[in-house]
Amino acid sequence: MKNNSLLLFLFVFVFGGLFSQNYELVWEENFDGTALNTDVWNYEEGVGIWNTGSNAELQYYKAANVAVGPDGQGNNALIITAKKETVGSYQFTSGRIQSRGKVEVQYGKIEARIKLPVLANGLWPAFWMLGTEKGWPASGEIDIMEAGNAQGIAAGTQERTLNGALHWEHQGNYAGYGPQWTAPAGTSLYDYNKFTLTWTPQRIEMHLNDHSTPYFSMDITSADAEEFRDWAHYFILNLAVGGSFTGITNPNNINAPLPAQMFVDYIRVYQLDGEGDVVETDSQGWDSWFGDGGAGSVAFPEEHLATITISNAGWAAYSVQLFKDGLSIPDGDYVLTFRAKADHARTINVNLGKGLNVDPWFIAYMDPASFDLTTEWQDFSLPISKENVETVGKLVFEMGDIGAGTLTTKVYLDNISFAPAGTTNLDEVDAIHVTVFPNPAESNVFVHTDPGKKVALYTLTGVQVASEVALHGEVQFNVAGLAQGIYLVEVDGKARKVVVGR
Question: Which of 60, 120, 266, 477 could form a disulfide with 158 if both were Cys (CB 3.0 to 4.6 A apart)?
């Protein structure tokens, strides 16, 4: 397909081309439970460049078309459903998820067990990866499995024809290689099959099940293939309807049976001989959204620091968002403070509103405030007065198509603080020893500090919820009955934030 993080640096063998070696399973997604794991996956919704660009796809993506549950064959699986359903000017809906900013892989053996729906004619399922740096095609793209190609339609072999592909930038222009491959007679993509990518710094190959001959193979040692050597890639799974790949761009010519479901039993990543690294990044309660043309990733390399890489600013201010929802904010006066800079000068917006559980939308409590970032750190402060009946809110940083400057850049946000006006004496703990855990908390919060210190728990409006002296260096607060939101644990006039969630 054109178009808090686990970073896996992996080295692996290639079937027939490299020595067969031992592997260690380092990460897997088995799609257990009854809901998508949003610690790993992000939903992509609405219309994107996949509709308006050269892909010319016909579907509108909805989170509701993505589910996790029984596949009818004894497995639990990811289920992506394409439907005949009208949304605006689009006559079809489907689902798309990606792991940007949460699971990113460089090198390794990647296996996925996938069952496709009947494709004839007009469905375009894909399991693929995009690079974490630069904009497409300079980011690099690895298509592990695509099916529904126009050539398969013409040959009448839709049930066993697939493609693997690489896309990259060559001397400032697009380059790509993606041969069609038809599996031997008796193979059916409408059953479960195992798709395997083997990726080393020298070569990329792809295999179906246990076939010794790869359906895709390419050397990546050339100077202009750095997209596949210099950075990690993230996963994408989707089921498109129509588009240039299928050769069908008129909705009236889609005749594949609908609704149609794509099942993914598992994805597994293996590491060679114990080499490599796994890094997990804590999002610290923040979420991100990229849509309506917006693209990029978010990382949290240090506590209190967020790095937002914007590869496409989209066509609206909200196309790139970093946000925190479910904040406890009764009516009153507040102050938002933060530090920020960017690799190139640009403008960002800040807003506060009521979350609607459908990102990126919210009901604003205020007009957006704009801040002009430079390449140097600046301290910003924004007073906010809230007067309505709502008691919870959503704090949003918008970094899409806003103003002038270089929109496709990296933005850095540090030490974000949202607190009632007049409570600046409750600075973050620095001079005294204090540990708060778990954070976020659901039932109990434990505070470790110096013995004899008084510990108090406050709402953001300054209302004391509880207090206790840490006689033996520890205090326990029961927070099960508190409203979801951010609270302050105060020790000696200094405070540390704790998030109460469910």
Answer: 120
